[in-house]
Specification:
The chain has a seven-stranded mixed sheet, sandwiched between helices. The chain has a six-stranded parallel sheet with strand order 8-11-12-13-14-15. It has a two-stranded antiparallel sheet with strand order 9-10. It is built from 22 helices and 17 strands. The chain is globular. With 578 residues, it is of the alpha/beta class. The protein has a domain at 8-180: Rossmann fold (3-Layer(aba) Sandwich), CATH 3.40.50.2300. The protein has helices at residues 45-55, 65-71, 77-83, 99-112, 123-127, 129-132, 148-160, 197-206, 244-251, 261-274, 290-302, 319-328, 343-349, 355-367, 386-403, 428-431, 445-451, 457-460, 470-490, 496-522, 525-538, 564-572, and strands at residues 8-12, 60-64, 88-92, 118-121, 140-142, 170-174, 177-180, 225-228, 230-231, 257-258, 279-282, 309-313, 332-339, 372-379, 412-418, 438-440, 463-465.
C-alpha cells in the first residue's frame, strides 16, 4: 500500500541545522523545558493545523526532522526531503531559536524541489515577516496566532490556482513585489479549532511514521500532554513575547481568545482515556475571570481524571481557587514563575505581588492537597545584579526549609535558568531596550540566524543589561546552578551521586567556555574553527549541557501509560467527540 501523497507536510527543524557537525557549546538554554538544546519540540499549533485542514479534506503530515536527526546520527534529512512530493511544505518559526535551522531546511527543500512552495508561520515568522519573505527559499508567510484557517485557504488556493489577494494574514511574493494582505483573521475564541491527539495518532498510522510525529526525544519514556486554554494574555511583562502588547503588535490581537470551558474539559478528558500521563493546561485559567474558572473546574470534575494535571498561574492563586481546583482535579500540580526573590525586580519585570503572597499561596496549595509546586526564577531581568541572583538562590533555600520538611519532602521544586538564547521579539524590552536597561546586539532575523552559529551560548545571547554584561550573565548562571544543586542534594530532591555529576558537569562546562573564549580571542577563520573542533572533541565525554537534573521536572506517571485497546479502537472508528 503506497504512502498517500500529502497536500501539506509540516516540518520542524532543529535550532541549528548541522548541530551534529558543528563545534558549539549550546549551554543551559533548555533545562526547564522538555526538549533538548536543539529544541526538537514542535509547537502545539501543528496539532490544530493537522486537524483543521484534515477536517476540510486536505491531507497533512507532520515530520519532526529535528527529532529524527537527534535520534540517529546517520539520518539523512536531505534524502528524506527528496523523497517527499507534497503540494506544499510548511515550516514553523515560532521560537526565534529556530532562525538558523528552519531557514537552512527551507534552503534544502528549494534545492531538491524548486517548484514546491515553502510556507512559514509562527510568532517569530509573523514578527519578521517582511524580512523573512525576502529569503529566496521562502514563498509565503502566514501571520498571526491562528494560522489554521488562513493556511487552509492558502493551500486550497495553491491547489486550485486561485488568486491569493483574499487569503487573510498572508505575506507573499508577486514577482519582485512583496504583498502584505490584511491581518484580518483574528478569532475571538478558540472554539473553532480542535486540540485532538487522536488526529496525531491517526496520522502516525496513515503515514506509518511514529517517530516523525513525536513532540520531543524522551516522549515515549515520559509522555507529557498539553491543553491550550488561551491565545493572548492580559498581562504585559517586559520580557515576554507572548504579552498583551506583543500579541497586539504581532498578531493584531486586542484581547485574549479563550477556549470554551466545556471544550477544554472535553479535550483533557478525551486524551486521558488514551494516555495515562501528566498534562499541563497552558495559560493561566484565572485570566478569563471567576465564571470561566468555575465552569472549567465543574466540567473537569465530571471527567473523573486520574492523570496528574499541572496548572500554571501568573499570579499566586488564593485559597478559595485552590480548594476549587483540588475538588475537581485530585492530582493537581502548580507552576508559578516569580522570576526573582526581589520584589522590586519582580515588579520591574511586570509581576506585582509580594513574597508573602507567594508563600501563602504555596502553603495553601500544599494544605489542600497539591501534589507538587514548581517555582521558576530567571537570570537576566531588569534591575537584577549578580548579587541579586545569588540572593535568589538563597531564597530558594528558605522556601525549601519552609516547605520541604517532614511530610512535604519533594513537594516543592525551585529552578533557576538564564533568559536565553534571545530576548523575545515583540516584547517591550526588545522594542525599547534602552528604556528597560537592555543593550541589544542583534535586531534583524539575519543577525539572529548568524548568532546561532556562534561557538558558545555567551556569544549567541542577543542582549546584556545595565546591571550585567553577557559574561556576568553566563558566570552567575553557573554560580547559581552550583549553589541550587547543592541545596537540592541537601533536601533530597536529587541524589548525592547525581548532584555530584551535575556539579562536575557545570565545572567542566565553565572551563570549556573559558577555553573557547581564549581560542576565539586569539584565532579566527579556518584555524580557529579547527582548534574549536578539536577542543569540543576532547570534551565529548561531558555529555549534554545541563545545570539541573532533567528528570527532576517529571511529574508522576502511571507505569502503563498507554491504553492500547482504546488507542486501537480510536484509530479504527470515528470518534464521537470529532
Amino acid at each position: 500500500m503506497p504512502v498517500p501523497k500529502c497536500d501539506l507536510i509540516l516540518l520542524h527543524a532543529p535550532s541549528v541545522y548541522d548541530f551534529r557537525k558543528r563545534s558549539t557549546l549550546f549551554g543551559p538554554i533548555s533545562d526547564v523545558v522538555p526538549s533538548t538544546q536543539i529544541f526538537e519540540m514542535y509547537p502545539i499549533g501543528f496539532m490544530t493545523i493537522l486537524e483543521h485542514l484534515g477536517r476540510h479534506g486536505l491531507s497533512v503530515r507532520i515530520i519532526n526532522v529535528a527529532l529524527r536527526m537527534l535520534l540517529r546520527r546517520s539520518f539523512d534529512a536531505e534524502k528524506l526531503l527528496t523523497s517527499l512530493k507534497p503540494l506544499a511544505f510548511g515550516l514553523d518559526l515560532h521560537w526565534l531559536a529556530h532562525a538558523q535551522g528552519s531557514l537552512e531546511l527551507a534552503k534544502i527543500i528549494k534545492r531538491v524541489h524548486p517548484q514546491i512552495p515553502v510556507i512559514f508561520g509562527g510568532l517569530s515568522a509573523s514578527y519578521f515577516h517582511e524580512e523573512l519573505i525576502r529569503y529566496p527559499q521562502v514563498d509565503y508567510v502566514i501571520r498571526g496566532d491562528s494560522a489554521e484557517e488562513p493556511l487552509r485557504l492558502l493551500v486550497e488556493a495553491i491547489k486550485e490556482g486561485r488568486p491569493l489577494q483574499q487569503v487573510p494574514n498572508l505575506t507573499w511574493k508577486n514577482g519582485p513585489e512583496v504583498v502584505v494582505n490584511a491581518l484580518s483573521h483574528v478569532p475571538a475564541d478558540l472554539d473553532g479549532v480542535s486540540f485532538s491527539y487522536r488526529s496525531i495518532m491517526k496520522s502516525c498510522a496513515r503515514h506509518r511514521d511514529i517517530l516523525g510525529h513525536l513532540p520531543f526525544k524522551v516522549w515515549f519514556r515520559y509522555p507529557i500532554l498539553a491543553a491550550l486554554s488561551v491565545r493572548g494574555c492580559i498581562h504585559n511583562c517586559v520580557l515576554c513575547g507572548g504579552s498583551a502588547e506583543a500579541y497586539w503588535r504581532i498578531c493584531g490581537r486586542a484581547r485574549p481568545a479563550y477556549r470554551k470551558p466545556e471544550l477544554m474539559a472535553q479535550d483533557i478528558g478525551t486524551i486521558a482515556r488514551y494516555i495515562r500521563a501528566p498534562m499541563i493546561i497552558l495559560g493561566d485559567i484565572m485570566q478569563a475571570g471567576d465564571k470561566y474558572v468555575e465552569n472549567l473546574l465543574a466540567a473537569l470534575k465530571k471527567q473523573n481524571l486520574k492523570n496528574h494535571v499541572a496548572l500554571e498561574f501568573f499570579l499566586p492563586p488564593g485559597r478559595k481557587m485552590l480548594e476549587m481546583v483540588a475538588a475537581s482535579i485530585p492530582k493537581f500540580n502548580l507552576q508559578i514563575s516569580p522570576e526573582s526573590h526581589d520584589e522590586d525586580v519582580r515588579r520591574s519585570f511586570g509581576r506585582s505581588y509580594s513574597n508573602d503572597q507567594l508563600e501563602k499561596s504555596i502553603e495553601d496549595a500544599l494544605d489542600v492537597g497539591c501534589r507538587r509546586v514548581d517555582v521558576f526564577f530567571m537570570i537576566g531581568l531588569p534591575g537584577q545584579t549578580r548579587h541579586s541572583v545569588v540572593e535568589t538562590v538563597r531564597y530558594c533555600g528558605e522556601l525549601l526549609r519552609r516547605f520541604g520538611g517532614p511530610g512535604r519532602h519533594g513537594l516543592l521544586h525551585p529552578y533557576i535558568s538564564p533568559l536565553a538564547p534571545f530576548l523575545d521579539p515583540g516584547s517591550r524590552a526588545f522594542e525599547e531596550p534602552e528604556k528597560y536597561g537592555y543593550t541589544l546586539f542583534y535586531r534583524t532575523l539575519e543577525e539572529h540566524r548568524k548568532a546561532l552559529l556562534a561557538p558558545s551560548w555567551k556569544e549567541t545571547l542577543n542582549y546584556e543589561t545595565t546591571w550585567m554584561t553577557r559574561a556576568d550573565i553566563v558566570d552567575v548562571t553557573y554560580e547559581a546552578a552550583l549553589e541550587l544543586n547543592s541545596l537540592k542534594r541537601e533536601y533530597g530532591l536529587i541524589g548525592r551521586r547525581e548532584g555530584k555529576r551535575i556539579a562536575e558537569m557545570i565545572e567542566r562546562e565553565r572551563l570549556l567556555l573559558r577555553e573557547i573564549d581564549s581560542i576565539t580571542a586569539s584565532h579566527d577563520g579556518d584555524e580557529g574553527d579547527q582548534l574549536l573542533q578539536e577542543l569540543m572533541k576532547s570534551h565529548s565525554s561531558t555529555g549534554p549541557s545541563t545545570i539541573c537534573k532533567k528528570d527532576e521536572m517529571n511529574w508522576p506517571s502511571a507505569w502503563v501509560r498507554f491504553n492500547v485497546i482504546r488507542i486501537a479502537r480510536g484509530l479504527l472508528t470515528r470518534s464521537r467527540e470529532t
